[in-house]
Amino acid sequence: MKLDILAFGAHPDDVELGCAGTLAKEISLGKKVGIIDLTQGELGTRGSAELRRKEADEAARILQISVRENLCFADGFFLNDKHHQLEIVKKLRKYRPEIVICNPFDDRHIDHGKGGKLVSDACFLSGLRRIETTDENGNSQEAWRPKVVYHYIQWKDLRPDFVVDITGFLEKKIEAVYAYRSQFLPDEGNDPQTVITSQNFQDSIKFRAQELGMLINRDYAEGFNVERYVAVDNLSDLI
Hints:
The protein is 37% helix and 16% strand. The protein contains 7 helices and 7 strands, in the order βαβαβαβαββαααβ. The chain has helices at 14-28, 49-63, 82-95, 110-125, 170-177, 181-184, 199-215, and strands at 5-9, 33-39, 67-73, 99-102, 148-152, 162-165, 221-226. The chain has a 7-stranded mixed beta sheet with strand order 3-2-1-4-5-7-6, with helices on both faces. The longest helix is centred in the last third of the chain and has 17 residues, at 199-215. It holds the Pfam family PIG-L.
């Protein structure tokens, strides 16, 4: 299956928090979108790897994601090295996305920055023909490099290079985020409360989208950072 967009998250729920509104909008426009989680989030204070996998599947159903996979890298301890890069290269060559979206280079959780750089490096390496990889069936894969790599914004209030109008899709984003009941809903079981179960954090999801939307005269928006200049054909492409 060839995908138009492939989004990566260091943990299940990263993609939902960072860019679910944008993905929902692109899917509504007929784009094929996939998500790959690097880890199972097994070091999280709440929930379990098994539970988070079920929650990730539910979030994918809500967003109508075409495919979702988990690479099962070690939460907190995966590295930006040859082994991990090649595992991502295999997925890039399998799905051949035009656009890749991943974690920011700088964020509160160490896996976020590390994951963003890992995916970005793998996107470059995936285009090198002399790097040989095979798919799950042992078939040789052709080189493939996405046209662009974008980084969504998570915890830190980073200044975006561009924003996407997600008016009409914020409710879908929040529904997908709350599919991770073990992580965000404070009344789930006997797990300890965390910063992301607080009302302040819950409110921040909508507040950030409102703030970015206000800056472009829209109701809601999501922000992204780029690795190279964003180009347009003419000034009419800009809102």
